From TrEMBL:
Domain SET: residue ranges: 57-192
Entry-linked PROSITE patterns: SET
Alphabetical list of InterPro entries matching this protein: SET_dom, SET_dom_sf
Superkingdom, taxonomy of origin: Eukaryota
One family name in Pfam for this protein: SET
Protein name, entry field: SET domain-containing protein
Length: 207
């Protein structure tokens, strides 16, 4: 893959993915489970959604001392993003979430469930795409403006995790900002209470 196929500000130490990568231990049954589209999986990545760098987003290094991720990178909207719309898929290493395979991912800040019933997760710590730079909203704004959502990838015929703009009414503290995500705004999700509880426990173990 040439450098032209890698987003600006992409870290040279992290391989860029234009599709998910599968760990060798992922079983045939787990792969088959990901290839089943359940009736409640109504959201989909369309077959014409381009792979590679996403034109909807920009990776930007944060230089705001008040930002929890100051000095690190965040993901920002390159244009106005409509409420409820797909931003981009979340790519990483698809792996089993059961021991001993899960042990390599216990400390990762980039590990998400993909299919709990199949015990499969996706971790973008060591390889991924732009979605790995989505930060948590806490300490940045009152509410998140985006969310992780399990969906169906029509291109590969498999379940996938992706980032979507929150629907109108869910993301806006005021009516003036109810129209999706503005160009130049940071894309922010909620990592969930479980994420922060685990991080607090890890911190307490080290002090």
């Amino acid at each position: 893959m040439g450098r032209g196929a890698i987003p600006k500000n992409w870290p040279s130490s992290v391989p860029y993915l234009s599709q998910p990568s599968f760990a060798p231990h992922v079983t045939k049954a787990q792969r088959e489970s990901l290839g089943i589209r359940s009736p409640d999986l109504t959201t989909a990545i369309p077959s014409n959604f381009a792979r590679g760098p996403c034109p909807l987003v920009r990776i930007i290094v944060i230089s705001d001392p008040s930002h929890p991720a100051n000095g690190q990178a965040g993901l920002f909207a390159a244009r106005h993003l409509e409420p409820g719309s797909l931003i981009l898929p979340y790519y990483g290493l698809v792996h089993s979430s059961t021991p001993p395979y899960s042990l390599a991912h216990d400390k990762s800040d980039y590990d998400l469930w993909l299919n709990k019933e199949a015990d499969v997760a996706v971790d973008a710590e060591k390889a991924g795409n732009e979605a790995r730079f989505v930060n948590d909203y806490r300490g940045v704004r009152e509410r998140p403006n985006a969310e992780f959502r399990q969906c169906w990838d029509a291109r590969s015929g498999q379940q996938c995790m992706a980032v979507f703009v929150l629907p109108a009414g869910k993301n806006a503290p005021t009516k003036a900002s109810a129209g999706g995500i503005a160009k130049g705004a940071e894309i922010l999700v909620s990592y969930g209470k479980g994420f922060w509880s685990k991080r607090r426990e890890e911190h307490e173990e080290t002090v």
